[in-house]
Specification:
The structure is a single chain. This protein is about 65% helix and about 5% strand. It is an all-alpha fold and about 675 residues long. The chain folds into 3 domains: about 1-365, no CATH class; about 370-480, no CATH class; about 580-665, Serine Threonine Protein Phosphatase 5, Tetratricopeptide repeat. It has a 6-stranded mixed sheet. Helix 15 (about 275-295) packs across helix 17 (about 310-335). The longest helix is centred in the N-terminal third of the chain and has 33 residues, at about 135-165.
């Protein structure tokens, strides 16, 4: 497995959290909550390998522990089935399953989490057969390490392991006093988080943890409260996630493997001890069904990308059931005196593995992947000398930060994060209010003559020169649009490149399509002189896509011809489908309402704003303020108060809404 992972791993930075983890391991720093200290320290050791880029070396860390996880599953499967060939089928099937393979080739934390969990299960199974204090001590150490690494996912599946231990509970209670220090030793990596954060390494998420309150805030991931839950999520989203989860389970091992896993699940109650069967079922349910019940997020595209890697431990349990399913097929053939029943079982196991490689190989063969690096190189090459870049999203922070901080591209450029996270050069102590963050960056801008750029959206109160992939802060003057040849080339590449297979890159492609459409639209349709032909061709290509069309509309919404804009809105609405994110639908309908209001069609604008809010009922939706403004202007106070209460109950009310409140008489 290690050879496969090393061969298919990217040679440079990717999206997800890859760039952040590579930067963190490069300096043995502190990653995002809960810190992942074991990954940071081990990753630092891997960065010293004389192999390829630093990114590739940290990808290899995931590869090594991915292979070791498969080894732990081999031991468990052999322990439970006494079949060496069946155990090989389990290990290889899990190794080439879609999501585990995908996570075992990039700088991420999930393969290490799987290693800790399945090795814990292996130790506990061994203890049930031979209850020695040393075995329990090893299990206790692994539980501590698992809790130190990725405690949320590890903890969800851990109760099943304790159920497996249940028949030996008396022996375990006897040996517990010897095992307890080993469990405590497994938690020691948190001491590293505490101590290392206060030395201020250059990658230090949240900064110094100089009090127990901040330490527990960090380790318990309290800062993710607004990320783990979405105000617009409802029961319908949960149903969609449930359907999505079932589909994901089927395709991890292909339908053939999923069918064998279902056979194994049914057979385990007869073939394996009840504590093992119940324990595996509980571990599977904890990391999938319980996780689903706890989920409070929109069923959006990027939310699916985040969620789909969470059930990696349940998929490992499925692999064990798959192995038992193969064994059941062999028993069925043997009972009917079928010749070569054992060879047929081996062939079925091999077929599952081969089918998985064929089904998932194209998406997981990422040795030539350069998307994230290409984007970061475009941004870094296009900004002026001695520039400051304020990054606003993981897709910016990771790739740009990696090239700048690890590969030392454009060392004259200094990178900040808008929330004061990741980098130690923060201007304020996170978490901070929007007002405090903007004030800090305005002081930075006022106190320097260096050019300042922003990726993404950050309202600093200055006019901006829009370059598409980023904006330059203009201390004076009017907002403008500038075409850089390197950015134009990137826009053309985004549209021309084949649709990527990994969801994070697809999402980033959509973001860049919006950026490119917003840049090119005014240059083509509002310029006093005809735009260059390459610019016109690029806009025509980009705007064939939904998100490119949305970008085009946003770039022209305030000054474009209303009739043209509404025609383009109609074209974009035909590109909507059930997989379109709520915020994208809401965004498009907001533009429709904005243009209708521009042309004086107030009643149509109200309807469009209402549809936008229904599609994406979130205060971040511009249609909320638009609808409140129209309600206030039309003296529809009852509807105004109803919408305001629905959107801002228990939330900070922006100054624009407070001003409307005064006009309505709240």
């Amino acid at each position: 497995m290690l050879i496969l992972y090393a061969a298919s791993a990217p040679r440079t930075v990717t999206l997800e959290d890859s760039g952040i983890f590579i930067m963190s391991t490069d300096v043995a720093g502190i990653s995002h909550p809960p810190g992942y200290p074991i990954h940071s320290v081990l990753g630092k050791l891997f960065t010293l390998l004389p192999l390829g880029s630093v990114a590739f070396r940290v990808h290899l860390l995931s590869a090594v522990f991915g292979a070791l996880s498969c080894g732990a599953l081999f031991f468990i499967a052999h322990f439970l089935t006494a079949s060496r060939w069946g155990a090989y089928a389990v290990a290889f099937a899990y190794g080439v399953s879609r999501e585990f393979w995908a996570q075992a080739i990039i700088a991420e934390v999930y393969s290490l989490n799987a290693f800790f969990f399945f090795l814990t299960l292996a130790f506990v199974l061994r203890y049930t057969r031979t209850p020695t204090a040393r075995t329990l001590e090893g299990a206790a150490l692994l539980i501590g390490l698992g809790m130190s690494h990725h405690w949320p996912l590890y903890l969800l599946s851990l109760p099943g392991v304790l159920v497996v231990l249940w028949p030996r509970r008396r022996e375990a209670a006897r040996d517990a006093w010897k095992a307890l220090p080993f469990f405590a030793a497994g938690l020691l990596p948190y001491a590293y988080v505490l101590l290392r954060s206060n030395t201020e390494p250059s990658i230090n998420f949240y900064g110094p943890l100089d009090s127990l309150e901040r330490f527990f805030f960090f380790v318990l991931r309290s800062g993710y409260a607004d990320v783990d839950t979405t105000a617009t999520a409802d029961w319908h989203d949960r149903v969609l996630f449930a359907v999505f989860l079932v589909k994901e389970m089927v395709w991890q091992f292909t339908p053939l493997g999923a069918a064998l896993a279902a056979v194994g699940f049914a057979a385990q109650w007869r073939r394996w001890p009840k504590n093992v069967a119940w324990g595996l079922a509980l571990s599977f349910a904890g990391g999938s069904l319980v996780l689903l019940l706890l989920l409070q997020r929109d069923f959006g595209f990027i939310e699916q990308a985040v969620f789909k890697v969470y059930p990696l431990l349940p998929y490992g349990v499925m692999a064990l059931w798959l192995g038992l399913g193969i064994k059941e097929v062999e028993r069925w053939l043997t009972a009917r005196s079928i010749v070569f029943a054992d060879a047929a079982a081996i062939a079925i196991g091999a077929a599952v593995v081969v089918a998985s490689v064929v089904a998932h190989g194209k998406g997981n063969w990422r040795a030539g992947y350069t998307w994230a690096r290409d984007y970061a190189e475009t941004v870094l090459s296009a900004v002026e000398n001695n520039a400051i870049i304020i990054t606003t999203a993981d897709s910016d922070i990771g790739p740009i930060g990696y090239l700048n901080r690890v590969e030392h591209r454009r060392p004259d450029v200094e990178i900040y994060n808008d929330k004061g996270l990741v980098f130690s050069n923060r201007l304020f102590r996170p978490p901070a209010s929007d007002r405090a963050r903007v004030s800090a960056f305005r002081r930075l801008i006022q106190g320097t003559d260096r050019p300042v750029y922003v990726t993404g959206e950050l309202a600093l109160g200055y006019p901006m020169e829009d370059y598409g992939l980023f904006k330059k802060v203009m201390r004076t003057g009017e907002p403008s649009v500038t075409l850089d040849p390197r950015v134009l080339e990137r826009c053309r590449a985004v549209e021309q490149e084949p649709v990527p297979l990994d969801m994070w890159t697809v999402d980033h492609m959509n973001v860049l399509l919006v950026d490119c459409g917003r840049l090119l639209g005014p240059l083509v349709h509002l310029s006093r002189t005809p735009a260059p032909r390459p610019c016109q061709d690029a806009l025509a290509a980009v705007s064939r896509h939904l998100y490119g069309k949305i970008g085009l509309l946003e770039g022209l919404a305030e000054r474009g011809n209303p009739d043209d804009l509404l025609r383009w809105v109609e074209e974009a609405e035909h590109l909507l489908d059930p997989t379109t994110a709520k915020h994208a639908t809401g965004r498009l309908l907001f533009i429709r309402g904005f243009v209708e209001n521009r042309r004086g069609s107030t009643s149509d604008a109200v309807q469009s704003f209402r549809r936008s809010v229904q599609a994406f009922p979130d205060p971040r939706n511009g249609a909320v303020l638009g609808l409140l403004s129209l309600y206030a202007a039309l003296h529809r106070s009852s509807e105004y108060h109803q919408l305001r209460e629905a959107m801002y109950a228990g939330r900070a009310v922006p100054a624009s809404v407070q001003e409307l409140d005064r006009s309505v008489g709240k």
